[in-house]
Amino acid sequence: MRHGRAGNHLSRTTAHRNAMIKNLAASLIEHERVKTTLPKARNLRPFVEKLVTLSKQPTVHRRRLVQSRLGNAAATKKLFDVLGPRFQARPGGYLRILKMSKRRLGDGGEQAIIEFVEKTPKDTAAPATETAAAKAPARKSPAKSKKAAAGA
Fold first, then answer.
1. Of 57, 66, 63, 59, the residue nearest 85 (C-alpha)
2. d(CA 42, CA 9)
């Protein structure tokens, strides 16, 4: 009999499937965009949306619930510090799945991109990267001259 066998099991054991979903969720929260197969993205969406809903109220109890389900302290911190406040006014639908036209090389599986609907603004990060890029060549040139002088 097939009682209680609903849902896509992704051809994995329960432990492997749960670990894979937790790792994909942590990567999605960290990078805010992940490329994976379409069935994995469809399994991941409700898992992460429930975590985001929990993170909208930053209580200790909810933080512990998310940590127990996610198993990643850095992802839990970002969820409560960045993503929860960002989606405070939204009642649901935090993620979107975009199907890609190319199939995966090897088994030909359908690929998809799963990402958050609202993105982090890049305005605050852009000046920091420009200043770091401008300072990096200035530090490298004296180091090369010291090596050249030591070798001579």
1. 57
2. 12
- DSSP state for residue 148 in the 8-state scheme: H
Alpha helix (H) residue ranges in the chain: 14-31, 38-55, 60-70, 73-78, 84-86, 125-151
The distance of Cα 142 from the centroid of its chain, to the nearest Å, equals 39
Determine the Cα–Cα distance for residues 54 and 118; give it in Å rounded to an integer: 18
- CB 31: neighbour CB atoms within 10 A? 10
The answer to whether the predicted template modeling score (pTM) of the entire model surpasses 0.90 is no
Considering the segment(s) 14-118 as one domain, its CATH architecture is: Alpha-Beta Complex (3.90)
Per the CB < 8 A criterion, the answer to whether 44 and 21 are in contact is yes
Q: How far is CA 52 from the centre of its chain?
A: 12
What is the distance between the alpha carbons of residues 8 and 109, in angstroms, rounded to a whole number? 15
Burial of 67 (0-12, 13-18, 19+ CB in 10 A): middle
- Write the pLDDT tens digit of every residue in 86-100: 999 999 999 999 999
